[in-house]
Description:
The chain has 221 residues and is an all-alpha fold. The chain has helices at residues 6-14, 20-33, 39-44, 48-69, 74-93, 104-121, 125-132, 139-163, 169-192, 198-216. Helix 1 (6-14) packs parallel to helix 10 (198-216). The mean pLDDT is 79.
Amino acid sequence: FSGFGTALVFLPVAGQFLSPIWALTVLTVMDAFGPLPTLRKTVKSAALKDVQRLWFGMVLALPLGLLVLTQLDPWVFRTLVSVAALCVPLLLLAGLRYTGPMTPPVMLATGAASGFLGGVAGVPGPPVILLYMASTSAPALIRANTMIFLFLFDLTLLAFIGLTGQLDALPVMIGLLMALPTMLGTVIGTAIFHPDRARLYRGAGYIIVMASALRGLPIWG
């Protein structure tokens, strides 16, 4: 219902059991299918030019993030993912927002930050989330833009992983098995989404993300 959060919830847990590349592959495959049942409706509510600028910036920076990821120890990966997941709700609760104009360069820079963070830690959402939470756009438009951008990120990331020869069959199969419950969750979340209850949804999302992030920290073994 929020339009984001899959990676923030999934990766802190998956990072405990899978290598960084495998965790990203599973996430990308299952998350690419999630929005499909509601994609046509979501596109109608989105500002596609903004999404296009975000995507272009993301494509430029994603390879650098993936390059850094290949050098990371799994312990470091788990720590980065969990810390990033914790920072998003904490920063939002603290009231940190971007308050400048939503110009094309700002959208490109935000996309680039998302691409790098998505490549190195699998969580492209925080820069986009922090940007949009400051805007005066309607909740439905924010949700639509975020969902479409993250869907495009999944497809782009999967393509880059394949081009670098790191796409293995087993994590793809796991991702496909998890795609159905992900799609079901998306349908249910869309059905219960009401803009006038945005504060309630946001609070529930914060709690879920923070709990998952805390559980994913390497300090638990």
